[in-house]
Specification:
This protein is α+β, with helices and mostly antiparallel strands. 25% of the residues lie in helices and 18% in strands. The protein has 11 helices and 18 strands. It starts with 6 loop residues before the first helix and ends with a strand. 39% of the residues are buried.
Length: 455
């Protein structure tokens, strides 16, 4: 197969894009662009796609994907400049390790200015709950009797295996969880054709009400186990309200995942409950949420004996306090955004006169600002927002900050807001200027030349 940087690899896909283009790529400013990688591919511009791609398109995409796999490359954006005669310059844009993929676009996603940095909600640790106690329903003896009755002859884990799991996890397993594994350790689900082990695992799952993980696959649901791109994560605001059973967290050193639900969602014993929760309660980490968890049962005994009860949802953690997150497009008076609790400020589709940032200067928790093009009266005011860790602006506002040397030093990540069909090359050049401020790896560009012939 042709290599990733061989024009022949891309030629079939470029022919399809040219035939499907909504405007002539040879016109001034005209181009065809797209992004392709393991997560699929997008094309810009192009007619709305109806139904599934045809065989020729699938083959052309697969040809490129194989070349990317051979080169051990990730997602690659591209721009093709095609003349009326078919002479083509194909620009391949490799985002490198300092850029997250953009959402369904050819443009760069978040620019990672500090290696390994996480948004504030992903750094949040549990609040101490010194008064937390197990639920009255927690009864290890009842749990053991119930399991032995439901799974007679079950094979339990040895104490040495439990101790090894505790050492690996870095936490002492709660008593109910130890009883579960002492009585009936989860099997390996028929590896190597072991039908007996598979049958044992199914019986145990039915007895407990969820799919149990073997001791060696249990893990602690720290925040990195729920990844989220900076662009979305920086806009999140989390809170644990008084009386909440579950703390509003992305992850916790006290969430010990021991099973999965029917949809594959992790189920954990919660050792860091909210003010209204119980030590050792059972929670589910919904894959559609990145903050908080859903209360399933007050204890492991409660889950096994009584099953998962309906109406146990506790979603107070997904309602941030008033003033912590503000979209100015929803306000008639911008000064209403001034609140000491403000963490995330967006200008959205603000239609009024350009806004001044003076009213929000000095707010101690303002860490995220996303300002749409044309909504700020003076972009240089951003330099006085000393707590910012994430900033998203349009290209013109970034140009003002860069030319003045006024990009905030405390930024951990940044983003450029652009229209979907905007030429990606100037955006990449701007992104590389921002990355260079922190000596981060740039987006690299490789240009391939070829001839597609007349359209």
């Amino acid at each position: 197969m042709p290599a990733m940087h061989d024009f022949a690899t891309w030629e079939p896909l470029l022919r399809i894009l040219r035939a499907d283009g909504a405007r002539t790529p040879a016109a001034p400013g005209g181009h065809l662009a797209g992004r392709i990688g393991r997560r699929g591919w997008v094309r810009v511009p192009g007619r709305p796609r109806r139904g599934r791609a045809d065989r020729a398109e699938l083959d052309a995409v697969e040809r490129v994907l194989r070349a990317l796999a051979d080169a051990e490359a990730g997602d690659v954006s591209f721009k093709a400049e095609i003349s009326p005669t078919g002479a083509t310059a194909l620009h391949l844009l490799d985002p490198g390790p300092a850029v997250e993929p953009g959402p369904a676009t050819v443009h760069p996603g978040a620019l990672l200015l500090v290696e390994g940095a996480l948004p504030e909600p992903w750094r949040r640790l549990p609040d101490p709950t010194p008064g937390a106690a197990p639920s009255p329903s927690a009864d290890p003896a009842l749990l053991e009797r119930t399991l032995r009755a439901r799974v007679p002859g079950a094979r339990g884990a040895a104490e040495a295996e439990i101790a090894a799991a505790e050492k690996r996890l870095g936490v002492m397993l709660p008593g109910e969880l130890k009883v579960l594994h002492r009585v009936a350790a989860a099997g390996r689900r028929g590896r190597g054709g072991d039908d007996e082990a598979a049958e044992h695992a199914e019986h145990l799952d039915r007895a407990v009400g969820c799919e149990l993980l073997p001791l060696e696959r249990m893990y602690v649901a720290h925040a990195p186990t729920r990844p989220c791109g900076w662009r979305s994560a920086a806009r999140q605001v989390i809170v644990t309200s008084p009386g909440a059973a579950v703390q509003g967290l992305v992850g916790s050193p006290g969430w010990i995942v021991f099973a999965v639900g029917g949809g594959g969602d992790p189920i954990a014993v919660d050792l860091t409950p909210g003010p209204g929760g119980a030590l050792g309660q059972i929670v589910l980490l919904d894959h559609e949420q990145v903050i908080g968890a859903e209360l399933l049962a007050d204890s492991l005994t409660d889950l096994v004996v009584n099953g998962r009860r309906e109406g146990r949802r506790d979603r107070r953690w997904d309602r941030p306090p008033p003033g912590a997150r503000t979209d100015l497009a929803r306000l008639t008076n911008p000064r209403a955004a001034v609140d000491p609790r403000l963490e995330v400020l967006t200008t959205g589709g603000w239609q009024g006169a350009p806004l001044s940032l003076v009213p929000v200067m000095g707010l101690p928790r303002l860490r995220t600002l996303t300002a749409s093009p044309g909504t700020l009266a003076d972009p240089l005011e951003i330099a006085r927002l000393t707590a910012l860790e994430f900033l998203e602006l349009g290209p013109q506002d970034w140009r003002v900050l860069l030319d003045a040397g006024a990009v905030p030093r405390g930024l951990a990540a940044a983003a450029i807001e652009v229209h979907r069909d905007q030429d990606p090359l100037p955006v990449v050049e701007l992104a590389n200027e921002i990355l260079a401020l922190r000596d981060r790896p740039p987006i690299t560009r490789t240009v391939l030349h070829g001839d597609l012939g007349p359209a």
